[in-house]
Structures are given as C-alpha cells and as structure tokens.
Amino acid sequence: MNLKYIDGSVTAPLGFKASGVNARIKYDKKDVAIIYSEAPATAAGVFTTNKVKAAPVVLSMEHLADGLAQAVVVNSGYANACTGADGMAIAREMAAATAEGLSIKPDDVIVASTGVIGQQIPMDRLVPGITQAIGELGVDGGDVAAEAIMTTDTIPKKAAVQFQLAGKTMTIGGIAKGSGMINPNMATMLSFVTSDASIAPAMLKKALKYAADRSFNMVTVDGDTSTNDSLVILANGLAGNLRIETEDENFTAFRNALLELCVILAKMIARDGEGATKFIEIKVRQAASFKDGQKVAMAIANSNLVKTAIFGEDANWGRIICAVGYSGVNIDPGKVDIYLGDEKVAAAGSGLSFSEDRTREILQDKEVNITINLHLGDVDVTAWTCDFSYDYVKINADYRT
User: Fold this and answer.
1) Rounded Cα distance, 98 and 71, in Å
2) CA angle, 309 as apex, 308 and 310 as ends, to 5°?
3) Cis omega before residue 185 (within 30°)?
4) d(C-alpha 199, C-alpha 201), whole Å
5) How far is it, in rounded angstroms, from Cα 183 to Cα 186?
6) Is the pTM here over 0.85, yes or no?
7) Cα–Cα dist 266/260, whole Å
8) Is 162 helix (H, G, I), strand (E, B) or coil?
9) How far apart are alpha carbons 10 and 36 in whole angstroms?
10) Would you call 225 a catalytic residue per the annotation?
11) I need a surface site. Which of 27, 64, 185, 187 has the fewest CB within 10 A?
12) In which band, very low, low, confident or very high, does the pLDDT at 188 lie, cut at 50, 70 and 90?
C-alpha cells in the first residue's frame, strides 16, 4: 500500500464539512464543533471503559447501534458527566438541534462533550452555538473544529492520509483532543475520524477496534481514564470503491491506513501531555503475544517513578524493570534487556557498566526512546507517554476554578 500523508483533517475526505465556533461556553475560545457528511455514512465508535460514563457517551453508543451516522456535534468546557437525567436530556437536545439544522434524523447524530465533570451545560448558549456552527460548515472547517474541541491542549491535533484501493483514491482524516486524564481504555479523550471509503459497518467496527488497540489504547499521560473518552469514525463511500464486506486485502489496506492515522494522532496526544517536557516512546520487543507486550509497555508508561526519572534525566533503569515485573505478564527476569536510546543499560536482568554521560545526553533530548527486550516470542509492541513534571500538578491543582 502506498500511503501518502496530506495536509488536512476531517474535511480531507470527499463529502465532509466541519466548523468550530465560540458559543461563549468558555467565553473567549471556540467551544462548539460540528462534523457533517453530505451523504449517509457507516459509523463505528470505541468508548471509555470507565463505569461512570458521561451522558453523550451513553447516547452515542445508542445512536451507533445501527452502524450509521451522518454528523457529530461536540462541545468543550463542560463534560456533561454525572449530571443525572438532565444531562441525558441535554445530550438528546444537542442531537435534536443538530439534526433539525441539518435535516437529518437525531439518531444519526453522534454527541460528545469534554470539560468539567458535574456541571450542567448552559443550553441557552449551546443551542445558538450549534445553529451558528451549522451555518458556518465548510470544507475548510477542519482546523477550527480541531480548535473547538480543545480543553487544556496547547495545540490542535489533526492529520490526514491517502492511499489507493483497487484504482480508487481513499482518504482518511481525523482530529483529536487530549492532554490530561489520558489512559486506556480509551486513551483518546476525544477523536473523530472521517473517510470516503465504502465499507460495511461490521468491517468498519473491526478496523477501528484494531487501530484503537494499537494507537490510542497505547497512550497514557497520567493513568486516569476519563468519563468521556470517545473515538468515532464515519465513512460515507463517496470515493466509489467496491464496498469492503469481508476481511480481504482491501480491508487490510484500509485497516492499516486507519491505524497509521490513529498512531499519528495518538502520538500528538502524548507529546502534548499536561506539563510535559519530553515525549517518551516505549518499545517492547519479542513479547509472547500482543496482549503481553501491551501490558508491559503500559506498566512502564504509567509508572510515575519512570516518568519522573525521565523528567529528572536520571538513567534509573531499575524503575523500568520493576514496572515490567508488576505488569502481570509471566516474564523471565533473567532474559530482560533494557536500552535507553542506543545505550544498553541492562542485560539478562542485570545492570551493565554503561556511560552515565551518554545516558544523560540521551535523556536531555525532547524525545526519549526506551526499549525492553523480553526474549519470549516474536511480537513487538509500542506505547507512548510523556514525562511527569511540576507543571502537571500546577495545571490540575486548579483545573475546575
């Protein structure tokens, strides 16, 4: 597959429009976004595993039961979580207002919210904001939509890729938000993906789950799983390819392109972690299975001791092997090798006489690579995180106020 990275986001695929406006929910920032497909689309989603699910998550899961959708409406500033029956009514009102403005069914609208938990959204501002956003929909609206879904993010997150499928050009685009409260499952906070590929709902759901497990579910910032995490994809078929109905080579090509896009967005989330000074990539080599490699990688990525050591530029590899040991995987400690960058710091479970100067130089970089070889199989798994700095505490100490 010849994959090409292109400039764009959710409006890069054929038939998609988007917008982002300031409805005064956050007063001085864009806070309402809409993504709209001109044609009905197959759709799928992956959502938070937190038992406390926000009203928009519950409603969107209902609306995706038939594998179809045509629009997404998102607000930032208020999570609409732990808001009782009123919160569910608000989520339904968001869907209804969007559907009315677009002349589609409310069941074909996906709803998402992000922000402070436990406070009601001011609907006297949000509904006019939805109307305004519908009026401003355009093929150039992907960037402002990415901006409107941000909370503590420092940068908008967007990407798009193209590839050829049976002589047709397929495009997949996406936006995401996430900076804190990031941990599987899901580890996206919010991400919305669009495509002009023609694919059956069951195949789209399978492709999305595969991509999520290897991208957003391999990201952590702080080990907290949000009430609102949502990853949704719409595929409207306007590229004109033969509909993907089975797990054939066309399905594999689409799935792999979707995975690549999701990895790009997931890494953006890790790079933009709250208070982060360093981006950390953790590679687990020769695991017995994907699940084992995932457990080991995420144990390391979620370790505050590892993350603070990287922040302090301390080559304390003992914290890494400690996390490997409590990951829940049946590892052989006497086989574990550990690298910081290209410097091997431990072999066969024991420390080496490595260069402190070289490891300090490696850990001073803005991007740090940690490699762990388990020598147990042939599966490689990668996770992404960031360091844990003083600023993370500052940002979260007064998030609500």
Assistant:
1) 8
2) 90
3) yes
4) 6
5) 7
6) yes
7) 10
8) strand
9) 9
10) no
11) 27
12) very low
